[in-house]
Write a structure and sequence with these properties.
Layout (H helix, E strand, L loop, with lengths): L1 H28 L6 E5 L6 H16 L4 E5 L6 H8 L7 E6 L3 H4 L14 E10 L2 E5 L7 H9 L5 E4 L5 H13 L4 E4 L3 H9 L5 E4 L1 H9 L3 E6 L26 E8 L4 H15 L2 H9 L9 H22 L4
Parallel strand pairs: 1-2, 1-3, 6-7, 6-8
Antiparallel strand pairs: 3-10, 4-10, 5-8, 5-9
Length: about 325
């Protein structure tokens, strides 16, 4: 009788273990079971926002739950990223904008409330694109040479930038340093506001990404006078690089990476990364990204994390070399 009881008890425990394991697996497979909040740390209309909203349109083609883009601008991008850093690591709060500038530039210049390389987990890279230097369509300035001559005559040069200590801000400061011409940067809540201010004739120059400035260029509200890359941007191939014009400045441009709070389960990170890869390969998505002049340059989790480290170091080296301070 004892043997029968022991056998029955053993069988019950074994079955319970199997059911629990199955339940856990089933729970993991069910992710996501509710909409996913996507935090963009800049205002609506900028390149990070446009990228996130394009992904949002295609997400449900490959996932049972929708993405909901939420803009949380402020503090040069820090406010939105910090919100994600402090969020529950359950896969329902995702960050789009990692590596876009503030998180790889700002830590070299000032203290931040979190460590952008240690306190948030990289998932994937979506895109990387150039920074285009523009002036108003009515400006007498038509090249970087004209801009330098304008400044050397004692004219004040003000530059509209998307955020303080972001990649565009750094480019403007680097131009000022390398060309030996005073440039005062004026930060905004995002690329959309910065380009609007330049279009309104309130500043001398501005920097933006193709997705932000192309509508203004097509409408002749802007003139592009330089690109801060090593090579010309294929979206605007007629615009020379800064180096071609004698100004030794080139950066990574602006990167659009995806991240999640530390502690997010690996299987959820893999799910998000693999879904984003499927979207990046979708022909209709490629057309949608091309329509906003946003190149697709996907990297998986491991490769993206390595690139982010390299990007961070390169910006740090440039800041140190040029002795740039806020």
């Amino acid at each position: 009788m004892d043997h029968l009881r022991k056998a029955t008890l053993f069988f019950a425990i074994a079955m319970l273990s199997i059911l629990m394991a199955g339940g856990l697996c089933f729970g993991a497979e069910k992710y996501p079971t509710k909409p996913i909040q996507v935090i963009v740390p800049f205002s609506a209309g900028g390149s990070s926002d446009l990228t996130a909203r394009t992904v949002e349109k295609f997400w449900t083609k490959y996932s049972p739950q929708p993405m909901l883009v939420v803009n949380k601008p402020g503090a040069g991008g820090v406010l939105g990223e910090e919100y994600v850093v402090r969020s529950k690591p359950d896969g329902y709060t995702i960050y789009v904008g990692q590596g876009s500038g503030h998180d790889v530039v700002m830590p070299h210049l000032q203290k931040m409330p979190f460590d952008p390389l240690k306190d948030i987990t990289p998932v994937a890279r979506l895109s990387i694109h150039s920074i285009v230097i523009c002036v108003s369509g009515k400006s007498p300035i038509n090249s970087m040479k004209d801009l330098i001559a304008y400044g050397n005559k004692g004219n004040k040069i003000t530059a509209a930038v998307s955020t303080a200590a972001g990649s565009v801000d750094l480019v403007m400061r680097a131009i000022s340093k390398r060309a030996n011409v005073p440039i005062t940067t004026v930060p905004f809540a995002g690329g959309s506001e910065a380009t609007t201010a330049l279009a309104g004739g309130h500043l001398t120059i501005g920097g933006g990404h193709p997705s932000e400035v192309m509508p203004h260029l097509k409408a002749n509200r802007f003139k592009a006078i330089g690109v801060a890359l090593d090579n010309r941007d294929p979206v605007i191939p007629k615009v020379p690089t800064l180096k071609e014009q004698g100004i030794d400045v080139a950066t990574w441009g602006s990167v659009k990476g995806v991240a999640v709070p530390n502690g997010t389960p690996p299987e959820i990170i893999e799910y998000i990364a693999s879904t984003l890869k499927k979207i990046s390969e979708d022909p209709e998505y490629k057309k949608a990204m091309a329509s906003i002049y946003q190149p697709i340059d996907y990297l998986g989790t491991k490769e993206w994390a390595a690139f982010l480290q390299r990007e961070y170091k390169d910006y740090g080296d440039l800041i140190k070399e040029l002795d740039i301070k806020l």
